[in-house]
Structure formats: C-alpha cells, structure tokens
UniProtKB/TrEMBL annotation:
The protein, known as: Phage baseplate assembly protein V (Modular protein)
InterPro entries hit by this protein: Gp5/Vgr_OB (IPR006531), GpV/Gp45 (IPR013046), Vgr_OB-fold_dom_sf (IPR037026)
Superkingdom assignment: Bacteria
Organism whose genome encodes this protein: uncultured Alphaproteobacteria bacterium
Gene3D superfamilies per the UniProt record, alphabetical: Gp5 N-terminal domain
Biological classification of the source: Bacteria, Pseudomonadati, Pseudomonadota, Alphaproteobacteria, environmental samples
Pfam families: Phage_base_V
Length: 198
C-alpha cells in the first residue's frame, strides 16, 4: 500500500508539472537556454521554443521577467521546454485591435501592420536608431495616384505618381514649397512661398 501511495503521489506530481506558468529569471543567450521561476521552484536551464530551427532559423531570446509556459514531457521539469509567452501587468498587450499585428521592441522600435487601415509601419524614431536596408537591387514602387513622401527635420519632399510616366513633385524647406511637373526631370519646377506643410 505504501508503494502504491508513493506511486500515486509521484504520478500526481508529474501530471501537475506537465504545463506550468512561470517567469524567466535568467537567460544564457550563448547556450540558448533560460531559467524559469515557478513560485518557489526554479528550473534548470531550459531551451525555448522557436518557429524555425533548420535550414531557415529564427532567433528571439526571452527577457528576464517575461511570463512564459513550461511544457514538461512526462511531467519532468528537467526535460521541459519554454513556450512563449503571456501578457502581464508589467508587460501588457501592445495593441487592442483585432486588425493590428504589432511588435514593440524594448528600445521603442515598432513594426505594425493594420489590415483594416491598410497601413504597414516601421518606426525607429523613438529609439533614435538606424534603419539599414541592404540588397543588390532595391525597388520602391507606388501605385497610380500613390505618393512617395520624405520628411526630414526642416525638409520634406513628396512625389506623386499621376499615371504612366507622369509625376509631380512638391518640396517644403524653411517655408518654401516647390510644385509642378518636372517633365522627366529636365524642366525646373515652379517655386512659391507657402507655410503649409505636407
């Protein structure tokens, strides 16, 4: 009977440990392992789940304090795997719309796609960071009637595609606005003074 009771107790412990909620307390990025605190229990360093780990690979380390799930095969936490992740009071959801996919990084950089508004946004302004785009060929294409707008502290330029080879440019600089059709770039546009900003 004692042996049976011990076996039942061990079985209950393992079942309770199959899925646990905890918070990351330490991260070893070199080993791709993290330690999770679950109440008064601390796990051994465990691997975290990633989307791809073959010819194509994905990397996004968890952060200390991040609330996660631990999935333990057979209820053995030493064989556990860390699954991402649960919002918490200290790290609430960064959006409240069903049409928005948004990633906010610790330095303030933001990537967002709003399928309802049809807007995709990449912003590193709050992070005062640098955006690097490198490729042998880079193509920037707007549809007919679309605009390309460049805005830089005190200077702004907008290029509007009017259809076919026709386009129109507008430039704002210290209160001056330049408008007109440059005719393939050979004819100088008209210059007027206007305080209006794009």
């Amino acid at each position: 009977m004692l042996d049976l009771a011990l076996r039942i107790t061990e079985l209950e412990r393992r079942v309770a440990n199959i899925v646990r909620i905890g918070a990351v307390s330490d991260v070893d990025v070199a080993a791709a392992r993290a330690v999770v605190s679950i109440g008064r229990l601390t796990t051994a360093p465990l691997p975290w789940l990633t989307r791809r780990a073959g010819a194509d690979r994905d990397w996004w380390a968890p952060s200390v304090g991040e609330q996660v799930l631990v999935l333990a095969v057979g209820g053995d936490l030493a064989q556990g795997v860390i699954l991402p992740a649960l919002y918490a009071d200290a790290a609430p959801a960064p959006a409240d719309s069903g049409s928005v996919h948004r990633t906010v990084y610790a330095d303030g950089t933001l990537f967002e796609h709003d399928s309802a508004a049809k807007i995709t946004r990449l912003s590193a302004l709050d992070a005062e960071g640098t955006l690097i785009l490198e490729a042998k060929t880079i193509v920037l294409r707007t549809g007919e009637g679309g605009t390309y707008h460049l805005d830089h502290a005190g200077y702004a330029q907008r290029l509007t595609h009017l259809g076919g080879p026709a386009f129109e440019t507008e430039t704002w600089h210290a209160g001056a606005v330049v408008t007109g059709l440059p005719d393939n770039g050979f004819s100088p546009p008209k210059v007027t003074i206007d305080d209006e900003e794009p």
